[in-house]
Amino acid sequence: GSAFVSPWRHPVGWQVSLFFAFHSLVFYSLVDWFASYAASRGISLSSAGFMLLVFQVVAVATNLGCAPVIRRLGDQKLLGFSCGLLLLVGTGGLAFMPGLSLLWLICAGFGAGIAMVTSLSLFGLRTRDHHQAAALSGMAQFIGYAGAAAGPLLVGLLHDATGGWSAPFWLLMGSGMLAAVFATLAGRNRTIG
Hints:
With 193 residues, this protein is mainly α. Helix content is 80%, strand content 0%. The protein has helices at 11-40, 45-70, 77-96, 101-125, 130-162, 166-186.
């Protein structure tokens, strides 16, 4: 076999990891902050709770539904791009047309579900053996969950600093766009090393 190449020193490692970080940032921010945002837009707590439930159910169902498809694809570029686009459409829709929040959360839920299962599949698809897959998994989850933890915190800080929801939603829309970029790069059919 060839010499072990660390994912930390390879562009594919960073593409997979940053994809994981940006889609996680959007998902956990919406879970944490949607109810507060909804209240500011006159949506009742019970409606917001129901919408968040739908968001998470759609994400989990999509996650499970997509899993068998991913390995059959020649590459994951289109899948990666589409999940980032769905996150962008979902967060942008919430920002600009909150009256259709349920629709936007369903979009974002599809995006989040595809993103999670795709990013987990890439650990194996972008590596040559299980040692490398384990190394990439460790790197991507470390960076990914840092993004997941940073998201809700940054949304809160931006909301407090600006007194509104524009800046937090620009953060989320930007993260959706970056998820699309890194997912498309990570989705190319090649391996580390």
